[in-house]
Design brief:
15 strands; 364 residues; 3-stranded antiparallel sheet; 12-stranded mixed sheet
């Protein structure tokens, strides 16, 4: 993958350079003369949600994401990246593997119809990245030089966004706890203790909820150990897809197919729904909770979401760092220093020994 323009557009002022999306200004900037220009309305559209059942029955025509002309696949992490002809890819930015091969564009594929543009520019991403590195403990001193900020690239990551209605029927044993004071005689006299008694009663009910834009990452290039807030986006910021938002960035095609993504979303939404049902069960405790979910009106969108990505190799192992291109949230993996860990353990052992010595040998 290489971080290059996805489609050439002539600057209105210098007539010779290419434009790229400026996240800080939310406009296009000429890479030659530096002038700012407004995005055209030629790519304007509407955000459409598609019926899941209909989509699974019909095949989609594959089309380019950002007018790139080559599709590459990494044989190691299976990420698929679209880049223009003038850019040469020497390694995969997800896993640093040099095994990047051309991929024939013959498969059916959905085309993104909405995205969240980059709101965090490179400078802001670098500052967040550097701050995160400085906050790490027990890391090798050479980490900062090994994780060069020059390797930070802006990439649009594919996601499936699901919406549905869920009707859940639940049943459980509701427990109602009361306490009884019990007295007993001891050598020191009468002692009173509180003993809990639970009365169990069967209960059942149902609830109906609506879920919107439940996101499932469709990239296999991102490390599985990276999760949580880094993948949180405010989908109210979704805009109709335009090629101009992708200018200056790379874009990954989805590797997780729609059917597989829905199975993951179905499981995650089901877990959320079960947790909500626990709040509906009467009593102060529950047991044998059973839920049955019925999913209705399932719709989806294929969206692109912004991410700054850095990957580097340290002692034969690849570590990844991500900066959310909308929120600036940072997450990553980094090696630990065996020497620093050993010194920390030794310090703790010495402190424990000193405390033990002071306790055994109090000062007069």
């Amino acid at each position: 993958m290489s971080n290059g323009p996805s489609r050439a557009r002539v600057c209105e002022h210098c007539l010779s350079a290419q434009l790229a999306w400026d996240a800080k200004e939310s406009r296009l900037r000429c890479q030659g003369c530096g002038s700012l220009q407004e995005k055209s309305d030629s790519d304007a559209g509407i955000i459409v949600e598609h019926d899941l059942n209909d989509a699974l029955k019909h095949r989609r025509v594959r089309g380019p994401i950002g007018q790139g002309t080559r599709l590459l696949r990494c044989e190691t992490c299976r990420a698929e990246i679209e880049i223009p002809d003038e850019i040469s890819a020497t390694h995969c930015e997800f896993c640093r593997s040099p095994l990047v091969i051309p991929l024939h564009d013959t498969e059916d594929h959905n085309h993104p119809e909405s995205l969240i543009p980059f709101a965090i520019d490179r400078a802001s991403a670098e500052r967040a990245f550097a701050k995160w590195l400085q906050s790490l403990w027990l890391r090798p001193r050479s980490l900062r030089t090994g994780a060069s900020l020059r390797q930070l690239h802006g990439v649009y990551i594919p996601y499936w966004a699901f919406g549905c209605e869920v009707t859940t029927r639940w049943s459980a044993d509701s427990g109602y706890t009361h306490y009884e004071v019990v007295s007993r005689q001891t050598p020191r006299g009468e002692e009173k203790t509180r003993v809990a008694h639970t009365r169990w009663q069967p209960s059942s009910g149902s609830r109906h909820d609506r879920y919107t834009d439940h996101l499932v990452c469709a990239s296999r290039g991102l490390a599985s150990e990276l999760h949580g807030d880094i993948h949180r986006f405010d989908t109210r910021g979704l805009l109709p897809y335009s090629n101009e938002y992708v200018l200056g960035f790379s874009a990954e095609r989805y590797a997780v197919e729609l059917r597989e993504a829905w199975q993951q979303a179905r499981s995650e939404i089901g877990s959320k729904q079960s947790a909500r049902c626990l709040q509906d069960i009467p009593g102060d405790t529950q047991r044998d909770v059973r839920t049955t979910h019925q999913f209705q009106a399932v719709q989806f969108k294929y969206v692109l979401l912004p991410m700054w990505i850095a990957a580097y190799e340290y002692q034969g192992k690849v570590h990844r760092f991500l900066v959310n291109g909308q929120t600036g949230e940072v997450e990553g993996t980094a090696p630990r220093s065996a020497m620093k860990i050993a010194l920390l353990v030794l310090t703790v052992v010495m402190l424990i020994a000193l405390v033990f010595y002071a306790f055994r040998n109090p000062q007069p």
